[in-house]
Amino acid sequence: xxxxxxxxxGIRLRFALGAALLYGALWPLMEVEFLAHRFPAPFLxxxxxxxxxxxFAGGPAEYLANLxxxxxxxxxxxxxxxxxxxxxxxxxARGILRRFWPGSCHWLAVGFPxxxxxLAGRHIGVLFILPMVAGLAAAWLYMALSTRARxxxxxxxxxxxxxxxxxxxxxxxASGFLYFCAMCALxxxxxxxxxxxGLAWLAFAAAVPYxxxxxxYEPDIAGRYLRWVRTPQYGRLTNGLLAAMYLYVPVLAxxxxxxxxxxxxxxxxxxxxxxxxxxxFAALALLAARLAAFPFERPGWINADYLIHQGRLEEALAVxxxxxxxxxxxxxxxxxxxxxxxxxxxxxxxxxxxxxxEALLLRDPIYDTLPxxxxxxxxxxxxxxxxxxxxxxxxxxxxxxxxxxRVLERMALIYIxxxxxxxxxxxxxxxxxxxxxxxxxxRYLAALDLDPSxxxxxxxxxxxxxxxxxxxxxxxxxxxxxxxxxxxxxxNRMAFEYLVAHYLLTFDMEGLARxxxxxxxxYRDLPTHxxxxxxxxxxxxxxxxxxxxxxxxxxHIESRFQNFVFLWTRVEKGxxxxxxxxxxxxxxxxxxxxxxxGRTAAGPPFQxxxxxxxxxxxxx
Amino acid sequence: MKxxxxxxxxxxxxxxxxxxxxxTGCQAPWPQGAQPVARRPALYPDYDETxxxxxxxxxxxxxxxxxxxxxxxxxxxxxxxxxxxxxxxRILWPAEDWKQLLMRxxxxxxxxxxxxxxxxxxxxxxxxxRIGVAGEELDRYVVYRLIPPVxxxxxxxxxxQRDLEGFAEQPVxxxxxxxxxxxxxxxxxxFSRNRPDRMSLQIRxxxxxxxxxxxxxxxxxxxxxxxxxxxxxxxxxxxxSPDGRWIAYSVNKVMPLSHTIxxxxxxWDEDSDLAVYDTVANRVVATRDIxxxxxxxxxxxxxxxxxxxxxxxxPQLPITQLYEVRYDLMRxxxxxxxxxxGKRELVFSAARHxxxxxxxxxSPDGRWxxxSLSHHGNFPIYQWSSDLYVIDTASGELRPxxxxxxxxSDSWHCWSSNGRWIAFASKREGGVLARIYFSYFxxxxxxxxxxxxxxxxxxxxxxxxxxxxxxELITEPAPVSPSRLGRAITSxxxxxxxxxxxx
Lengths: 620, 503
Known about the structure:
By secondary structure, chain A is mostly helical. Chain A has 2 domains: 17-294, no CATH class; 301-466, Serine Threonine Protein Phosphatase 5, Tetratricopeptide repeat. Helices cover 68% and strands 0% of the residues of chain A. Chain A has 32 helices and no strands. The longest helix of chain A has 29 residues, at 236-264. Chain A is elongated and about 100 Å long. Chain B is mainly beta. In chain B, 9% of the residues lie in helices and 42% in strands. Chain B contains 5 helices and 36 strands. At the A-B interface, helix 3, helix 20 and helix 22 of A face strand 13, helix 4 and helix 5 of B.
């Protein structure tokens, strides 16, 4: 007894130590703030919010996953949540595999939490993981109770009890239920060798979702079975990891059972066993290395978007510069980040650009369904002073995303700006009900009670003078949208820079000439790209626009332009590839280069077919 | 000997005893001699001077006064009282006691007294709050659409029914019941004379089309009104005739639009017409007076006797004159037996009053015509100026429901089956999110101060970011489950295309 107690104490101590080590290891690896941005999930305390999730199969699992996601608000809490998830996944996987394999399963089970951490740490929300883990936990419980029941009637009682319980399990977990049934079926078929019960489990797996649809009807048959299973939609490696995670426990269990039989028969030779062991450890090492590589990787514009959201604009620009991606979302982000840093007209052609101003405001309806686009449009319009447009897109974000902290906070700020503190209070009180956000909400509410216009708030004070004062009804071109902002407040710098950027991106030199007299209101020395455009303008028209004198173009830009023209005249008649090769290294980040090629040197590899300017008309 | 680190007795005394004390309701006695405060207490929701039905769920509320202990006592003019003590200011009445109190005080008054104890032990007693209890009951169920404050897009939405004698809310249908990936839209439910055995609603589903769903005697059916040839547009706003045979409906070519100042949402109705669907003969009946190409007719509604159709109507104007588009209120007689239409008549002139009329609803006794007026357009829920008005059909007198209206939008109104209650959606708390309010409409035609639909959590409306619209009062619960309704909508079997008859 005494010896057993000491051993148990030792195991617990080792487990606690392992948990602490895991927590420490995950601390620098898991960027939970990034996950909060990438996988936003609404959650409010109280039963009324839960009711929304109680009306469809898998709703409770989504509710729990949303609660889990709230821990991302604090690094310590998020890392703790992932530590507990990993430990639970390891215990469950080990517990299940031990039923299929007589030997130790400690290391065999490690792959499962590693896969979960890799996928949850970058690629998929926990909503696509928790139901699976919970389903496996239910299966583990079934196996444990089934093994413990010695008598025949007791075993039958356990099976019947769990078969009946599988109905609420389906309601709770949706696709997690399939794991539950699949593992129970495998256990009955391979371990207990009771094919009738195994088939009963398979029959339940097929029948319960179908039958349940009489209560919670939904027409999508795939949805009934596979809700909360993430279908492949990523790169090959990620899809492979996804498949590995979903199949890890069932496939290993089946394989372990087979190996156990072969081993028992003495047919599995020692060298082969050792080779399999070595391959297994190598795979675990690879997975661990993948997890350890998290801090060194930058997943595309999503990361740039996250950094912009965090206010880390320089880091975001560094990421965007490395991407060489000229898609509209990436161009939107680089233009926005540059404008926020006050360098839009200095550096915009250092980043991938195309001959279109569509990326400036990202108004193409194809982005209406991109969840991030609602946020981007909302933030940009707010910065431009178009508070109602921002309100519209925040409403869209609220619809798509639910009551997440960022949506609620922005909604409140917008209603404060629009002079409607009562509406702002509703959204702030909702924010107060989000875990970890109560203190922030109370600060806002207290400030609102002191001054309903919140004029002391730096953001509100900055945006309020920019707000539109006229009702513009209808559809407007990008140029008109920006002119409306300048009509409301001629010193709206962001609107002015966006307007100039629009003229540059659409090769509208007349437009540039029209706003040229206003350049001196914003700059002592004209921004580089504006000087480049004016040099080109003079080259074509023979003079500078009114309000601009010759000294506006600095001598080094003047001489650089002359060199560019000289070089261009030499390669103009040749193949476009040669012209590109000759000009891109030295002039690829200039407006002249953009004017000739319709794109910047930064961006995807050059293709000769697209080597001429495409003056894309803005349909709006 | 060292004392033990963990002393179970001490833990019991420190934690368990106070907990038991609190749970069993053992409180320190309430101090006598509270200082009177010559005003009524700030309560949320505000029920002061409202008139409530005798069959309403408990009016839970929050006392918005500073204090550490709160005592609420409600007593009836005809006897009975309830007392609730609270530490956080939330007053939750016991359901059974509340029910008995209301039943006993039907047609009388309730007096609510609030006392608040400060941290220093001082006690304040406020002037009593008075709540009237009407003699007439409110229909037991209200059906409404509950959605986020959507703009152009939506994800999850549904139509729900609430039992007003308690707090239970059940879905009538949610969009996951008839769409793949929550992409469907459900709207504009309608009942005949507050009876759920005649019900209809509109579906917009990328996967399953845009049918009108007609539920008669518990059997739901898809009707493709657009296939009748009357209009390619699906049915939108609709109204059942009192005899439960006809559904008047509008077809609207609507376009959401945004304003750059003020309320950002608005709706532009490019064109609209009316028609009547005969649920017995499966045919669509129309006449030029309700489908005039030179005018936009919308918001159909039957008179109480079913022989007159009310509707809103405006001349065709371009979108540049958005603010000049104002709808008249019209009516046209209809003889269901002969199938003949009369001539349309003007009931309310938009040009004369400079206001736009929408959503006419005649009271069950035919005496009052309730409708909304706003500055322009025909989508009052997006118009802060929208208020409720009544026309006395006996005298023709028009007057606003002053006790009911707020500075924000008040719209989507309906009558109870006995004509003594009005339910409507109001955005009075901030102008963004609509809540359902009820107002007692007495026999002299006076509407009383409205009260918000009570909730189990008294602070529910303070944080709820969903919006309620289109409340419809019904006497019994909806007869079809969401699952059955979903199957009917997604089934491939529909009624044959209705035939079109022009009169």
